[in-house]
Amino acid sequence: MAETLKRCSWCGTDPLYMEYHDNEWGKEVHDDKKLFEFLVLESAQAGLSWITILRRRENYRKAFADFDVEKVAVFGPDDIARLMNDAGIIRNRLKIAAAISNAKLFIEVQKEYGSFDSYLYSFMPGGKAIINNHETIPASTPISDAISKDMKKRGFKFFGTTICYAHMQATGMVNDHTPDCSFK
Q1: What CA–CA distance (Å, rounded) separates 158 from 147?
Q2: Contact predicate 177/8, CB 8 Å
Q3: Who contacts 122 (Cβ-Cβ below 8 Å, separation ≥6)?
Q4: Contact 180/6 with Cβ under 8 angstroms?
């Protein structure tokens, strides 16, 4: 008899959420392109539910040049106008402008640290991901506070400590699957 899979309760029964939970959330990512993708997506999520963004993820991929940070960094007024008319993404001018500005800052961080990944992991104890055993998942931690504070100082927008912690979870900097989850 097949063992029944157990999942963290937050993903519910939505197939898209379950796919994301099972195959991405909490799994370490060290690729800067993927880290930029999650920076754009998590920033777009501010004030919204994650499923809203997941359902638009492919539209974001098309709208933001397949998350090519170099291309997004040079988006101009015509691109902003195009994005404001794109019903497939969240049409919030401040979030769109932040994605472009954040792309420029992302490149600056890459130049300073060699990669955005190296920058993020410079905040992690021993430069390693953390596997937590929370029953209740926190919204932020002292590490997300520190990263968010530093990123804000550098000029990043829509990346407060809660969004930062969600980014850390999404990219496996922290593994917050509950102890009984089959994907821990």
Answers
A1: 13
A2: yes
A3: 113
A4: yes
Contact predicate 39/102, CB 8 Å: yes
pLDDT tens, residue by residue, 34-59: 999 999 999 999 999 999 999 999 99
pTM above 0.85, yes or no: yes
The answer to whether 148 and 164 have CB atoms below 8 angstroms apart is: yes
Query: What would the two tokens of residue 171 be?
Result: 């990219």
Active site residues: 20, 42, 50
Give, in words, the CATH class of 27-175: mainly alpha
User: How many helices (H) does the chain have, and how many strands (E)?
Assistant: 10, 2
* Alpha carbons 138 and 112: distance in angstroms, whole number: 30
Q: Would you kindly state where each structural domain of the chain is located, as residue ranges?
A: 27-175
Q: Tell me the C-alpha to C-alpha distance, in Å, between residue 144 and each of 30, 159, 182.
A: 17, 10, 26
